[in-house]
Amino acid sequence: MKFRIVAGCAALGFALAASAQNLVITNARIIDGTGNVIERGSVTVKDGKLISVGAGGAAGSAGTRIDAHGMTVMAGFIDAHRHLIRGDADAWLKDHAGDNMKSFVNAGFTTVFSMGDDPKGILELRRRLKTGELAGPTLYATRVIPLSGPMPRPAAAPRGPFTDLARTDPARPPDRPETAPPAIPDEESRAAVRAAKQEGFDAIKTFMLATPGGPEGHTLSVIVDEAHRQGLRVFTHATAVQDALAAVNAHVDVLAHTAHIGRLEEDESARRTLLDSHVPMVSTLAVFIPHFDDQNRPLFRDGGPFPMPRPLSSGGQGPVNARILWEGGMAYAYGTDTQWDPRASLADELRALNLVFSPRDIIKILGPNTAAAINKSGELGTLEPGKNADIVLIDGDPLQDVFNLTCVVLVVKDGKVMVDHRGKHRAATD
């Protein structure tokens, strides 16, 4: 008999290989991310790249052979919206970075995009991962650049021990600001983008909260123009439909959240504008549904009690808007924007996605769509020859039960076996 921990399997430890290996994974159910499912297939890895993916046993291929025993092989997972550093950056790097980075790979995440962390701290974290001082996922980092001068604190903004603004969300009436904030000079915005490029950031992050007659749309257009000159993409936080419209009108590259304030089923014009922009959207749906701890307490992402009822309404409207946009052809991607352990965050996000998406849809969201959103389709998201050898082995078939995605028992990143707990997992679940 099996039992489930964190909606799928036992949380397991971490193992690190010293260097890239030539590998052959045989006897696997392969879900390659392009729509193909290969029963009893094999995957061959050489020098950190996928060499072959197909039916049969890859006879004659050299390298360490791993018998998957019928388990499922997929491309390594990508979280396109995560915040990592909590509290003082130096203290976090010293005390928590190692375990935190290992937790991502243990859950199957080989790539993570930081959507706004302490600038100095996140670049140092990325450096340590690149040099191998820390074991963990490939990390990309955004630099947050403002769209206006300071905005007044909403009257209903959270106070006390739990101050996450998403508890009320200033984008949601009646707390939505009605007065335009001060504008930022165009050259100051352009200089901030150039500085971000010089510092080594991978992308720009902005927060869109459009005010009546305000400067936000113009400033975002300026930032996008300069970012594209510098070869950077722009991700924009826009939780309300009207803010998502302002963002796509400024030609941003990615909407960092599902727009969950506003009913797209009642607004054909907004729906058409979002779809015609061809801007991908990241899910982050689990922020607005309760996370349940081991005592069955419903918690918000800040660790405090889940606030009823306003965020919960987004927990319903977000999936509705997501499915409407999906039906229209939007490239919908995966991201969590939560603080929980990555395996638990995956389970929570799957609960929300599962309301309106099939397992096949979710695999597309988690793989090729997210790789496209972060502009890495040539390297990640599917199992195809020439792509990075980022691979997960899953005990179970996620096409039959999507929560099997939480049962990752082996992880290969850039051809290196980072996690291998097949035997331990079987012992833990028998």
Shape: globular
Give the total of beta strands.
18
> Overall mean pLDDT score?
92
- Determine the structural class based on helices, strands and strand pairing: alpha/beta
Alpha-carbon Rg, integer: 21 Å
* CATH-assigned fold name of the largest domain: TIM Barrel
- SSE order, one letter for each helix or strand: EEEEEEHHEHEHEHEHEHEEEHEHHEEEH
**N-to-C span:** 6 Å
The fourth-level CATH homologous superfamily of the largest domain is Metal-dependent hydrolases
Question: Which sheet architecture does the biggest sheet show?
Answer: 8 strands, mixed
Instruction: Please give the share of residues in helix.
Output: 25-40%
Write the CATH architecture name of the largest domain. Alpha-Beta Barrel
Number of helices: 11
What's the domain count? 2
The share of residues in extended strands comes to 15-25%
CATH class of the largest domain: Alpha Beta
* Parts with pLDDT < 50 across at least 5 consecutive residues: 1-8
Architecture overview:
The chain is α/β, with parallel strands linked by helices and 430 residues long. Helices cover 30% and strands 20% of the residues. It has 2 domains: 1-76 and 381-424, Urease, subunit C, domain 1; 79-380, TIM Barrel, CATH 3.20.20. The chain contains 11 helices and 18 strands. Strands 1, 2, 3, 4, 5, 16, 17 and 18 form an 8-stranded mixed sheet that branches. 50% of the residues are buried. Residues 1-8 have low confidence and may be disordered.
